[in-house]
Amino acid sequence: MPSSATPAHGNLLIVDDDPSDLSMSPAQESIPWRILIVDDDVDVHVVTKFALSNAQFQGRRLSFLHAYSGKEALATLRATPDIALVLLDVIMETDDAGLRVARQIRADLHNELVRIVLRTGQPGQALEHSIICDYDINDFWCKADLTTRKLFTTVIASLRAYAGLQAAAADRAAMSAELDKARQVQALLGQQALVLKLDAKGRIIEASERLCQLAGARPEALIGHALHALHAGAFPAPLVLDITQGLARDGAWSGDIQTRAADGSALHLRCALLALSEPGGAPYEYVAVATLHDPTPGP
User: Which keywords label this protein (predicted)?
Assistant: First the structure.
């Protein structure tokens, strides 16, 4: 909830943890696990926080944020994206407020990481199995059945699942960043280098921009065609034999190839060819990279 304190029923007062105060120096303990308690009954907040006050997981303590309606819950989640767990009451300002929040967390906030545990004080108000099937939640409890021990077990299990998902998401983000860099490098090389990819049958599946320029053809005019689309005549038999034997023996070949550009000028290419295959399997793709080479010896 945005405010630092929320008026409670009677004389009770729940003080919210301020996310801005939770960034700690390396000398202090790790950033705590943030848990959002969503319930319109202040006593539930008090009891829940007390029951989990000494809990830790992976050396990190628990920190509690509080919301007393579905609207407050969504506002807190928007403002604090690293909340690990939401303990969510079903019935608040409406009979299905908690269910609406659960759905909006996934559909509107696009938060797939946070774990959602629904709690209800009115068992039988909605069938548990239909809620678990219809909503992307992680557990569902009747408050009367959720003892301190069961609450602790549920919270730790939820935090463990969140930690695993968080690590997987970080790995995916890192891999995506590396892939983007590789694509940028490939695009840069494609402007200058001659890069050609062939499928297992020798048909062109990709040609770099520079190669297409020399061939005088657009990529779509080359894709799906054999090498004759780039080299009209037959390659010399000794060259074909050398390439075939190199690929069969080492999975790679390098050497010089002579061909002609679209304007008829001679091209001398220094080429490297690599066969890509699964371990023990036949090649499924060939990649060729060539550079223009002047065979004329210097003075």
Answer: Phosphoprotein
